[in-house]
């Protein structure tokens, strides 16, 4: 996994204005930055809220912020002021992409509309990440990850395990939407490369999460009239779980195909199980998921984790360790591919950094910039836009822009 490279990234020469806060937009913009884009993070004077979330050495550099804002330059702009809007227009005229997650009414008041921005820059790609599509019944409602998990059906899906609706302990709605937003931006850039035409791109979190969940869970409702209920049975049973070994450890054991099941039965040493009509075909195993998983769990409990690791590896049956979060820091595979690294931040000390998992030989991803302090690049960017020193100083004095305090 490439952290640094002399080769330019796939989006080298592309300028992205990141006006988003929290996770969805900033994560999408970070992905574009990893691909080589020049990402300018435009922040209000108080900064992105995530700067104040999580452990931190500095008041504006929380762990939450650090993980979704690398490969960016930070510029402070008060977009409620006339001067701030003037600077933003100058930035938009130089940009390829504007990405934000401001609710539609508020974005309109700030002038962040396609009609206005496209007059400044007709070839612009404007990506608007929102909770719900603007032409629907829920238009304009606020949405965070919990709302996306609840409304999309994901929380209820946890009932099979927890006995009641629960949120997945990961901000899945935010992160899944972020990935699709980055994909949509790159697709729009491809369209512009082919036609010269800019466009507005809308990525609603609710609809995106429903589409994500329905890949497997539409099930019987894939047909009209229906051929059964919704919900994919193999993943909707509490029996599908990591299994406890005889020494109290846990393993993911997955004899999925008929070949896997046959080899699993061989290493178990139970010829009667091999011929058991309840489990000897994939169709049969699908029909009795609780029974199948309970049988696997009963067998896994008879040997130690080390014994199963050796047997399953030799038999080429899918399995995996059940890692805790701290386990991942020591994972031999992650360390062998260079997933984890450290970098020295000029104000925050040693930071642990994650490599971008995507490998591109000709245009590799890279970590060119560590997460910026609030307003770290305000003067640099304004100077590049043609503002002279006296004007920049005046904007700082008025609070239209800002720079980090001297340490």
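^ Assign residues to that structure.
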């Amino acid at each position: 996994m490439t952290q640094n490279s002399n080769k330019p990234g796939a989006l080298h020469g592309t300028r992205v204005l990141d006006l988003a806060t929290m996770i969805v937009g900033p994560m999408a913009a970070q992905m574009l930055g990893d691909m080589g884009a020049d990402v300018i993070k435009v922040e209000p004077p108080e900064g992105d809220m995530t700067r104040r979330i999580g452990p931190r050495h500095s008041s504006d550099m929380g762990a939450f912020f650090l993980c979704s804002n690398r490969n960016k330059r930070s510029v402070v702009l008060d977009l409620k002021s006339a001067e701030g809007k003037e600077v933003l227009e100058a930035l938009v005229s130089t940009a390829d992409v504007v990405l934000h997650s401001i609710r539609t009414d508020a974005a309109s008041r700030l002038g962040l509309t396609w009609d206005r921005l496209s007059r400044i820059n007709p070839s612009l790609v404007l990506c608007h990440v929102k909770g719900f599509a603007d032409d629907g019944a829920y238009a304009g409602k606020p949405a965070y990850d919990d709302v996306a998990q609840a409304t999309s059906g994901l929380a209820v899906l946890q009932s099979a395990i927890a006995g009641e609706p629960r949120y997945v302990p990961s901000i899945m709605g935010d992160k899944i939407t972020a990935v699709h937003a980055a994909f949509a931006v790159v697709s729009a850039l491809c369209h512009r490369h082919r036609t010269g035409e800019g466009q507005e791109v809308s990525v609603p979190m609710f609809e995106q999460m429903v589409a994500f969940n329905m890949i497997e869970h539409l099930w019987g409702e894939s047909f009209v009239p229906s051929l059964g209920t919704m919900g994919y049975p193999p993943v909707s049973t509490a029996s599908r779980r990591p299994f406890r070994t005889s020494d109290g450890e846990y393993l993911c054991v997955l004899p999925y195909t008929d070949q896997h099941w046959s080899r699993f039965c061989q290493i178990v040493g139970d010829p009667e199980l091999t011929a058991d009509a309840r489990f000897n075909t994939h169709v049969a195993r699908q029909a009795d998921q609780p029974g199948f998983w309970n049988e696997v769990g009963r067998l896994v409990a008879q040997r130690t984790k080390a014994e199963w690791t050796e047997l399953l590896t030799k038999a080429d049956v899918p399995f995996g360790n059940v890692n805790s979060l701290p386990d991942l820091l020591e994972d031999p595979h992650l360390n062998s591919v260079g997933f984890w690294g450290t970098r020295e931040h000029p104000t925050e000390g040693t930071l642990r950094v994650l490599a971008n998992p995507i490998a591109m030989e000709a245009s590799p991803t890279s970590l060119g910039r560590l997460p910026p302090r609030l307003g770290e690049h305000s003067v640099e960017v304004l100077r590049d836009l043609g503002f002279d020193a006296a004007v920049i100083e005046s904007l700082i004095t008025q609070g239209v822009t800002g720079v980090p305090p001297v340490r």
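Residues 172-195 form the longest helix (24 residues).
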